[in-house]
From TrEMBL:
This is ABC transporter permease. Keywords: Cell membrane, Membrane, Transmembrane, Transmembrane helix. It comes from Nonomuraea helvata. The keyword DNA repair does not apply. Belongs to the ABC-4 integral membrane protein family.
Length: 393
C-alpha cells in the first residue's frame, strides 16, 4: 500500500526530475493567474475611478422645468439670484425656449449669393449670463453677454461652436453680424466644449430682453449645478427659491440615484475583465494538459515498471494528478503575487488608489491548483489505464 507521504515524494521527484519542463508548464498557469488577478484588480481600481468621475459629472446636475402659466410667469428672470445664494449651488442659469424660436432662419450676411448656402435653420434661445458655467462649457472665442447688454437691450448674440461653423463665423475681431429675420445681431462670443446641454452648440443665444420678439419672454427651465452630495438638498429647495408660493408647480429633474447606475457600470466592467481573465486561464489549463500528456508518454517505461512492481492504477493516476495539481498551485501562487504587484504598479503610475480584494489573492492559488487538477485528469487516467506488458514493450 502506498502512503500519502510516498505519493507526495514521488510527485515532487517527478517535478524536479525535469525542472525546465516543469518550469515551462508552470509558466502557463502563471500567465493565466497573473492575467486574471491583473484584470480583476485593474477593473476594480479603474471602475472606482470611473464611478468617481461619473458621480462628479452626473450627480450634480439639476434641471427645473417651468410650465407655462396663463397669468404671471412662475419664475422671473432675476430669480436666479435667489437660487445661487443657496449653499451648495455652484452655478445656475435660466433659459427660455419656445416654438417660435425653433427653426429660425439665420444668415451670416445680408447678401443673397445663389452659389453659397448662407442661410441656416437654427434654434434661438434666451438665457441669463451664467449659462456657460451652467452648461459646463467655455467661451471658445469672445465673451458671453453681461448684465449691461441685457439692461441696454443690445442686439448681441452668442452662437454655439457648431452654429459658428455652419454660418462661416471664424473670427470675432471684426464684430461680425448675423441676421435673424430682418434684424442684425452682433456676434460677441462662441460657446463650445459643452458637457451639458450639447444642443446649445447649434443654437443662437440672445439676452432675455432681446428674445421677447421670438416668444422667449418667460423662463422655461433652469439649469443648476451643485457641489457633490448637495443635489438632493438643492432639488428640494430650488422650487421655493425660484418661485415662492408656487414651488409645487415646478418640476425638478434631479439626477438619478448614482448607486444603481454605479453598480451596473462596475458590474459590466468586472464581467468584461473576468471573461478575459478566464480565457487566459483556460489557455494556461490547455498548456498544462498538453505538457502533462507529453510527460505521461515520456514516462511510459517508468509506469510499466511501477505497475510490474505492484503499483495499482489509482497510485499511477494519483501521482500524475498530484503532479499537475502542484504545478497549478505553484503557478497560482507566483501568478497571484505578480498580479498584485502589477496592479499596485499600474495604480501608482496612474495615481489611482489600488483596490484589491483579499479574497482574490487567496482564491487565485486555489484556482491555479484546480486548473492543474482538471488539466491533469485526462493524462492521469490515460497513464492509469496502461497495462504493464504494453508499457514495458
Amino acid at each position: 500500500m502506498m502512503h500519502v507521504r510516498d505519493l507526495i515524494g514521488e510527485s515532487v521527484a517527478g517535478m524536479l526530475a525535469r525542472p525546465v519542463r516543469s518550469a515551462l508548464t508552470t509558466l502557463g498557469t502563471v500567465l493565466g493567474i497573473t492575467t486574471l488577478v491583473i484584470t480583476l484588480g485593474v477593473a476594480a481600481t479603474a471602475g472606482n475611478q470611473i464611478v468617481g468621475r461619473f458621480d462628479a459629472l452626473v450627480a450634480t446636475a439639476i434641471t427645473v422645468e417651468v410650465p407655462e402659466s396663463p397669468g404671471a410667469p412662475l419664475v422671473e428672470w432675476d430669480a436666479i439670484d435667489r437660487l445661487t445664494r443657496l449653499r451648495g449651488v455652484e452655478s445656475a442659469a435660466a433659459v427660455a425656449d419656445s416654438k417660435d424660436g425653433e427653426n429660425v432662419s439665420v444668415r451670416s450676411n445680408d447678401i443673397v449669393d445663389p452659389t453659397r448656402v448662407t442661410t441656416q435653420t437654427l434654434t434661438v434661445l434666451a438665457a441669463t449670463t451664467g449659462l456657460p458655467e451652467a452648461a459646463r462649457g467655455r467661451m471658445v472665442q469672445g465673451r458671453f453677454y453681461d448684465a449691461g447688454h441685457i439692461a441696454r437691450r443690445d442686439r448681441v448674440a452668442v452662437i454655439g461652436d457648431q452654429a459658428a461653423k455652419m454660418l462661416g463665423v471664424t473670427r470675432l475681431d471684426r464684430a461680425p453680424a448675423i441676421f435673424i429675420g430682418k434684424h442684425a445681431y452682433t456676434v460677441i462670443g462662441i460657446l463650445g466644449d459643452l458637457r451639458r446641454e450639447r444642443n446649445l452648440s447649434t443654437a443662437v443665444l440672445v439676452p432675455p430682453t432681446v428674445g421677447r420678439q421670438f416668444g422667449l419672454s418667460d423662463v422655461t427651465r433652469v439649469l443648476v449645478n451643485t457641489s457633490l452630495g448637495a443635489a438632493g438638498l438643492i432639488a428640494r429647495q430650488a422650487p421655493t427659491a425660484l418661485s415662492p408660493g408656487n414651488g409645487d408647480m415646478l418640476q425638478v429633474v434631479a439626477p438619478p440615484s448614482p448607486t444603481r447606475a454605479r453598480d451596473q457600470a462596475q458590474d459590466d466592467v468586472n464581467a468584461l475583465f473576468l471573461i478575459l481573465g478566464l480565457v487566459s486561464l483556460v489557455v494556461g489549463a490547455v498548456g498544462i494538459a498538453n505538457v502533462t500528456l507529453v510527460t505521461v508518454m515520456e514516462r511510459v517505461p517508468e509506469i510499466g515498471l511501477r505497475r510490474s512492481l505492484g503499483a495499482a492504477r489509482r497510485h499511477i493516476a494519483a501521482q500524475f494528478l498530484l503532479e499537475s495539481t502542484l504545478i497549478g498551485l505553484t503557478g497560482g501562487v507566483i501568478g497571484a503575487a505578480l498580479g498584485i504587484v502589477t496592479v499596485v504598479a499600474v495604480s501608482a503610475a496612474k495615481q489611482w488608489t489600488p483596490l484589491l480584494d483579499l479574497r482574490l489573492a487567496v482564491a487565485a492559488p486555489v484556482a491555479g491548483a484546480v486548473v492543474g487538477l482538471l488539466a491533469g485528469l485526462y493524462p492521469a487516467l490515460r497513464a492509469a489505464r496502461m497495462e504493464p506488458v504494453d508499457a514495458l514493450r
